[in-house]
Design brief:
This protein has 274 residues and is an alpha+beta fold. It is built from 10 helices and 7 strands. Helix content is 31%, strand content 18%.
Length: 274
């Protein structure tokens, strides 16, 4: 049963005209309807704007949204929240926007898992003996990454009369790091090998590391066990990006009184995964 109800009244936005709606709090609920019925206008626009304004959230839009014809002319939602705001302390939107626009962003970096991994490598006797800190094991830092590809693991190859293509870096062969950094191992693996592990594999490797295990367990529970830790953001589907965002939120230790808003969360999922 619902603990409380979030009630919106007088909502006018796009094709919604003076609509009233009530959402149960403390449980899962879904808004369904045919295309063009106003689902996104109600949930992804009006609800987010009105609740976000109460919590002091600034509205954020991507470049694509700014340029979208659907958003022109820009119209604010009219209406108000008549009940339920006292039960909400946080508002989290989990959408399908990419978690990053470059290969430098990946599952491990976005979720914070990579911070724990780098600390484990920095704590090894090998790393201490060489004076390596956790920053040494970041492919975004000059001192530890491959100088040729600058930590990307691949290089752009210019082709005459054809679009450029990417090929593995001839220096690090896709490992992202320089030889000195790769010489340090933890549990028999270097940092590049850890990034090649899938979530399922990593869950076994980091079974005795609570911070890493908690993050990996959530990722596995929502069906992302097949993804590699270092899989670039540019290779992820919208549904995968959305589930990574959800996992990042769910692994937080304190998240009470939070309203989660998910945009088409079943996109790309097999019925068994749902």
């Amino acid at each position: 049963p619902a603990r409380d109800w979030l009630k919106l009244e007088g909502i006018t936005r796009n094709n919604l005209n003076n609509l009233s709606a009530a959402f149960p709090l403390g449980c899962f609920t879904a808004v369904t309807g045919i295309s063009g019925s106003g689902k996104s206008s109600l949930v992804s626009q009006a609800l987010l704007e009105l609740v976000g304004a109460h919590l002091g959230h600034a509205e954020q839009r991507s470049e694509a949204e700014e340029q979208s014809l659907e958003d022109a002319p820009e119209l604010a939602s009219s209406g108000h929240v008549s009940a339920g705001l006292g039960s909400i302390k946080r508002l989290v939107q989990v959408d399908q926007k990419p978690i990053g626009r470059t290969p430098r962003s990946n599952l491990a970096t976005y979720t914070g898992l990579f911070d724990h991994v780098r600390k484990l490598f920095a704590a090894t006797d090998q790393a201490k003996g060489k004076g390596f800190d956790a920053g040494r094991f970041s492919f975004n830092v000059v001192k530890g990454r491959c100088a040729n590809c600058e930590g990307e693991g691949f290089v752009s190859v210019e082709l005459l009369f054809m679009p450029s293509v990417y090929a593995p870096c001839p220096t690090c062969h896709g490992a992202r790091y320089n030889p000195e950094t790769l010489a340090v191992s933890w549990q028999g693996m270097n940092i590049a090998q850890v990034l090649q592990l899938t979530v399922d594999q990593a869950l076994q490797v980091f079974a005795e590391q609570p911070p890493a295990r908690r993050c990996l367990q959530v990722l596995q529970d929502i069906g992302l066990g097949y993804l590699r830790l270092g899989q670039p953001a540019t290779e992820l589907s919208g549904g995968e990006a959305q589930r990574i965002k959800l996992a990042t939120e769910l692994q937080r230790t304190a998240r009470g009184a939070t309203l989660y808003v998910l945009d088409e969360p079943t996109n790309g999922l097999h019925p068994q995964d749902i």
